[in-house]
Amino acid sequence: MPRPALSTNVIEAARKKLAALPPPTPAAHSVRQAVEILKAEITALREQGYTLTQVAEHLNNAGIPVANSTLRNYTAAQTPPRRKRGKNAPRPDVRKAPAPAKSKIASPPPATERPKTSSTKIGGSVSRSGRFTPDQDTTDL
Fold first, then answer.
1. How many domains, in total, are found in the chain?
2. What is the pLDDT of residues 42-85, one digit of tens each?
3. Pairing mode, if any, of strands 124-126 and 132-134?
4. CA distances for 117 relative to 109, 122, 128, angstroms
5. Residue-wise DSSP of 87-103
6. Is 47 part of any domain?
């Protein structure tokens, strides 16, 4: 069976009706939601001097079953959860030591050509490049 085609007017009328709908109200709330809704009243009672145990007793008598420790957890200031760090990740509370200042090492003086030195034991000279050049034979012994 073919479906009827809908006109633009029908669609726009439906859009306006959907936009005008109020937000739904849930039929039941969790204990956490109930404490969240009553947070301002609980805070006011705490400022007046009531203990969490007394507030929890009053909530239990009103039909909201909650322990004082649960109430403390639910009304505590929300802090962001701690992120787990990887095995080798640095701890966020530890600062790295500053890198040592780089000192300038004095460069050696410019190379000058050394004169060839002669060795009295071998009978030759060794140049700066490490090459050995023998001396002429002599009659001195």
1. 1
2. 989 989 999 989 999 999 999 999 998 888 888 776 556 666 66
3. antiparallel
4. 20, 12, 9
5. TTPPPTT-PPPPPPPPP
6. yes
